[in-house]
Every structure is written in C-alpha cells, then in structure tokens.
Design brief:
alpha+beta; Double-stranded beta-helix; 7-stranded mixed sheet; 3-stranded antiparallel sheet; 24% strand; binds N-oxalylglycine; binds manganese (II) ion
Length: 279
C-alpha cells in the first residue's frame, strides 16, 4: 500500500494523509517506520485517536514501553502535563522539556519513538519543535565529522535540568546529581547506516577534553543543529497525531501558561539499538 505524504520543511517533518482504519490495520507499519527515520517527525490531522487506538498504532510500530500501569486501561499511557495532580512524576521534570533534548539519554538504549495526541491545548504557546540531528550531522564538513566521530559525551541530569531551573533548591540539585550519568558516542552510527549527532541539553561534557573546549564545542553544535533550516514547529490542533524518531531528532516545547491545563497523551516505543559509535 502506498502511503501518501508531503514534506513540511526541507529537512524535518512529513504530514501523512491516511484513513484511520487503514492506519490502525497495521498495513502501513513498514512504510511509516521508514518515513519516520527519513523525516524525523510524522504528523496527521483530524484522526481523533482514542487511547486504545493510539496504543494499538504504537504496538504496530514497535515495542510499547509499559512503565507502571496506574489504572486499568492505562497500559503504556503517559499524560504529559504540568499538573502534578494528574502526573506527579512527569510534572516535576516537565520544565526541562522547554530546552532542546532527546528523551532517555540516561538509558543505554534510548527510546526509539514517541506518539503524541492532544487532549487539552493552551491558547498561547505550547507548540512542539523538532530538529533533525541527522541533517545537522550530514551538513558538517568532512574534517569536522571525522573529529566528532571519535568523541564521547557524558549526559547528566543536572546538565539537562539546571538551565531550566536556576533557582532550584540545594536538595533538588542534589537529587539530580544523584541520578546516574550515561556516556554515549557523540555520533551515532545507526543500523540503517545513517549517522546522527547524539546532542541534547543533557550533554554535560566531552570525555578527555578540556572543560572550556568541551563547553564551546557542545554550545556550537547546539547552535548549528537548532538552526531554522533543521526545524519543524508543530502547532497543535485537536485530533492531531504526531510521531517522532527520538534517536535522530531533538525536541522542545515552547513556553505556555501552566493554568492552561495543556495535556497530551503519550505512548513510547522502546529503543531497538544501543548508541553505537562510528567504527
Ligand atoms: C515529551 C516532551 C513536549 C511537549 O513528551 O518528551 O518533551 O510538547 N513533550 O509536551
Ligand atoms: Mn521530551
């Protein structure tokens, strides 16, 4: 079956035009996965998926992350919100989502992809932005690629969160620091053969490099990778479906008032490969 789609920007994001029943049949799973890895983000409008439908679609695309099931029928469902009454674990870290990041950089195998649908939207802000860490790598000069291919980055929770909450309490900062760090190669050689930067605000420093040089390099790469030419900004409408390839993109949410009650329903697919460096 041929999947109908159109590119939303030159590097990142495609919109698909698909009948809901065909989408849920699983018949397009192979094509969707290929498009996801190629374009980083897939959106569809007007689908109005229920939780069960969103979960079934997720399962057709990969290995659903289950997490802790809070309530019957909520298997795999995470409610993305600032509201601590709805999701206390997520709410305490959600401010960090306003900085460019990949999810799960503390894990050996970061999640492959995530599916989001809106349930409550904010009248202002609350867009989700994506950039392609594939395109950002591919556009670098060859000599720079060759250098970056040899580097390893330490990802820490305090690097990810402190820039978003400089007035945190000493106890909160200590709690972030207690979280285990994770090293990943700066350049990911994916099984597909494509390479991407493993870039995220969680990237604290480069192993074995002088701290000032390491800081400069990571800042420069972040500025490079987040240029407008790599960006897709999603302005949400009720009924949308958005899927992103977490292994080859960064994302962030633009600021919005907490009182808006903004809430998205999220299902995540487990990663399928460790972050393998260039060999
Ligand atoms: C996430 C995330 C952004 C948003 O769910 O991992 O960063 O727009 N969400 O809510
Ligand atoms: Mn995120």
């Amino acid at each position: 079956m041929a999947l109908q789609s159109t590119e939303l920007t030159p590097n990142t994001g495609s919109e698909i035009f698909v009948d809901k029943s065909v989408l849920l049949s699983g018949a397009l799973a192979g094509e969707l996965r290929a498009l996801l890895v190629q374009r980083g983000v897939i959106i569809a409008r007007g689908l109005n998926l229920t939780d069960d439908e969103q979960r079934a679609l997720a399962r057709s695309l990969g290995d659903l992350r289950l997490g802790t099931v809070k309530k019957e029928g909520d298997e795999g469902l995470m409610k993305v919100t600032f509201d601590a009454k709805i999701n206390p674990e997520y709410a305490q870290f959600f401010f960090g989502s306003q900085l460019w990041h990949m999810d799960g950089t503390y894990e050996e195998v970061p999640p492959f992809a995530t599916l989001l649908t809106p349930r409550v939207l904010s009248e202002t802000g609350g867009q989700t932005e994506f950039v392609s860490n594939y395109a950002a790598y591919e556009d670098l000069p060859d000599d720079e690629k060759a250098l970056l291919d040899t580097l390893t980055v330490v990802h820490t929770m305090q690097a990810a969160l402190f820039p978003g909450k400089r007035d945190c309490s000493p106890e909160e900062f200590a709690m972030w620091c207690a979280y285990p760090n994770r090293e990943h190669p700066l350049v990911w050689q994916h099984k597909s053969g494509r390479k991407s930067l493993v870039l995220s605000t969680s990237g604290s420093h480069i192993v074995g490099m002088h701290p000032l040089d390491s800081h400069d390099l990571l800042q420069r790469l972040m500025r490079h990778a987040t240029q407008e030419k790599y960006l897709y900004r999603h302005t949400w409408q009720m009924g949308d479906l958005l899927i992103w390839d977490n292994t080859g993109t960064m994302h962030r949410v633009t600021p919005f008032p907490e009182e808006s009650g903004r809430q998205l329903h999220r299902f995540t697919l487990n990663g399928e490969e460790v972050v393998r460096g260039v060999v």
